[in-house]
Design a protein that fits this description.
This protein is an alpha/beta fold. It is 47% helix and 11% strand. Helix 2 runs parallel beside helix 4, helix 8 crosses helix 13 and helix 9 crosses helix 10.
Length: 565
């Protein structure tokens, strides 16, 4: 790839999905390149992505990679804060530029040219980056104060969610589901049984069939509709002809969708951006384009977690809920709202009391010790337990909503439980494990530095997506999945740093210490109790595929446990 100047453009929030703010920045930067006598620039952009809290910006990452590879000999942007809002991002840009043999001039339309190859230029850039970061912090404080004031006045913050339309009017069919779920929870039904019943009756979940960035990513990962996935990948790529193809052939993606005409494409608000010769699209904009084209997303499913979150919301009883830093449904009922309630305030408070009780999310009694802890050695998915003639087995199975699993691995259940139980008993008999002192030593290696960076990144992601969830731009089930991933990544990082050990003293309070006594206790304990201990000790265990065909149980397929200590 030959060297060429680059344009970088970004806006934090694109409410329309048209990316016109990015387009205007690109046009202005292109004019400056022409005035400087530079050749035609390459364009890198990120639409609807904030730079303040560390969200991954594909365009920015691609720009850095091309600078480091020597493909960029100049950079133009509207303002420094379009490129970065954090000093740490500036240092990455400086490192990329300093790695080049020849200077890379950087021009900001609102701040002039900054020579990042000189000490004074780098100092000026660091000052401007610090100012930009401070402006972001002040803006965040103002927004928090405004939201608190709005909550006190009873004003809704964004959409009211499931049960209401965009005009805050009750949707009768969804309101009926809410009232039924509320009654069943108060009557003692488990969240699991309610979710199972709603799925069996094909009742849509909140946001079912609607696109957002997470569902675009999920569609690609599962490759459920190959034609649509091919077009999404084309739109993601920075290739104008393929991005244009995405728009022109959008309606060919699903069965029963009529082919869009060229005239229809040109009439859409997002057409100018999609058909431009500048850049590809991010997942958020792709989601808005798919929604505009009336192509439905794949069905999502009820789970205990999203049933619980859906029915706890203060908006259902007509009250404004304020929960800074908390998940929706866990905030204080601050003031009466102006919309019509679906449930009474007493009902919502009763539901919160029931679902806050210890064990309220346990659902049915577990049958299989290692379900969910064992992982498929082929696809990495969790293995589920299932009964078979004469016993049970653990299997990677195809189920509704789990089309990413391979369904091609099984292992005998009783023998597997026995092998792993012996390893757990060995661990329980180890005094160092019981005392929580079996930790890894710290060191100054690159792995530790990466672990520290991972923890900082997760903290930023939690802040960002908690805000997205609180403002109604992220569904409960998606937020739950993300939180699980963050927790797993953080545990991995903390293990590397030697700073995370589960509270085994509380978990093992009733477990004896001598090995013979442990074995006897383990044999008589309930499956639920043994699972609690297993999950406290073990992160996961990989099960390898069958080698040679044999009817005999092969314990060598059971991988080494990934211990939590």
């Amino acid at each position: 790839m030959p060297r060429a100047p680059a344009i970088y453009a970004r806006i934090s929030l694109d409410r329309t999905g048209e990316a016109l703010g990015v387009q205007r920045q690109i046009e202005a930067c292109r004019k400056r390149c022409k005035a400087l006598g530079w050749p035609e620039p390459r364009v890198y952009s990120d639409n609807d992505i904030s730079a303040r809290l560390g969200k991954r910006r594909p365009g920015f990452e691609e720009l850095l990679a091309d600078i480091e590879a020597g493909y960029v000999d100049g950079l133009v942007a509207w303002h420094l804060d379009r490129v970065l809002r954090r000093v740490v991002d500036l240092e990455r840009v400086l490192d990329a530029i300093e790695s080049q043999r020849s200077p890379v001039p950087v021009v900001f339309l609102q701040a002039g040219e900054i020579d990042l190859t000189t000490p004074s230029g780098r100092l000026l850039a660091r000052i401007l980056a610090a100012v930009a970061a401070n402006e972001s912090d002040l803006k965040s404080e103002r927004l928090s104060a405004q939201r608190a004031q709005a909550a006190q006045s009873g004003k809704a913050h964004g959409p009211l969610g499931y049960g209401y339309d965009e005009n805050q009017h009750i949707i009768p069919a969804e309101a009926d589901v809410i009232r039924e779920v509320a009654r069943r929870i108060i009557d003692g039904d488990s969240l699991y049984s309610i979710a199972t019943d709603l799925n069996a009756r094909l009742i849509p979940t909140p946001g079912s069939g609607k696109w957002d960035a997470r569902r675009v990513e999920r569609a690609v990962g599962r490759d459920e509709r190959s034609g649509l996935v091919a077009l999404i990948n084309a739109a993601r790529a920075s290739e104008p002809t393929r991005a244009a193809e995405f728009a022109r052939h959008l309606r060919r993606a699903g069965a029963g969708i009529n082919v869009a005409t060229a005239a229809w494409v040109r009439e859409q608000a997002w057409a100018e951006h999609v058909l431009s010769d500048d850049h590809g699209l991010n997942d958020s904009t792709i989601a808005k384009v798919l929604s505009s084209a009336e192509i439905p997303a794949d069905r999502s499913y009820w789970r205990a977690a999203n049933v619980r979150a859906m029915v706890r919301r203060g908006s259902l009883c007509g009250w404004r809920e304020f929960s800074p830093g908390k998940r929706g449904g866990y905030g204080e009922l601050t003031a009466p709202g102006t919309w019509t309630p679906i449930l009474s305030k007493e009902t919502v408070e009763a539901i919160r009391e029931v679902t806050d009780r210890p064990g309220s999310r346990r659902g049915r009694e577990p049958k299989y010790l290692m379900a969910g802890i064992l992982k498929c050695g082929k696809c990495g998915s969790s293995l589920a337990g299932s009964p078979i003639s004469g016993g049970y087995r653990y299997a990677c199975s195809k189920q509704p909503g789990r089309t990413h699993t391979c369904g091609g691995l099984t292992i005998a259940g009783p023998q597997t439980d026995t092998v792993i139980s012996m390893a757990i008993i060995d661990a329980l008999a180890d005094a160092k494990v019981r005392e929580g002192s079996a930790r890894r030593r710290k060191s100054n290696s690159g792995a530790e530095k990466q672990a520290e960076a991972t923890i900082a990144e997760i903290a930023r992601l939690r802040d960002t997506y908690t805000t997205e969830f609180a403002e109604g731009r992220l569904h409960q089930d998606e937020f739950d999945v993300m939180r699980e991933v963050w927790a797993r990544r953080q545990r991995e990082a903390e293990r590397v740093l030697g700073t995370w050990v589960p509270n085994l003293h509380a978990v093992l309070s009733d477990v004896p210490k001598g090995r013979p006594d442990i074995e006897k206790w383990w044999a008589g304990a309930s499956v639920r109790r043994r699972r609690e201990i297993t999950k406290a000790l073990i992160e996961k265990i990989d099960i390898e595929p069958v080698g040679k065909r044999s009817n005999k149980f092969d314990d060598s397929r059971i991988g080494e446990p990934l211990w939590r200590f």
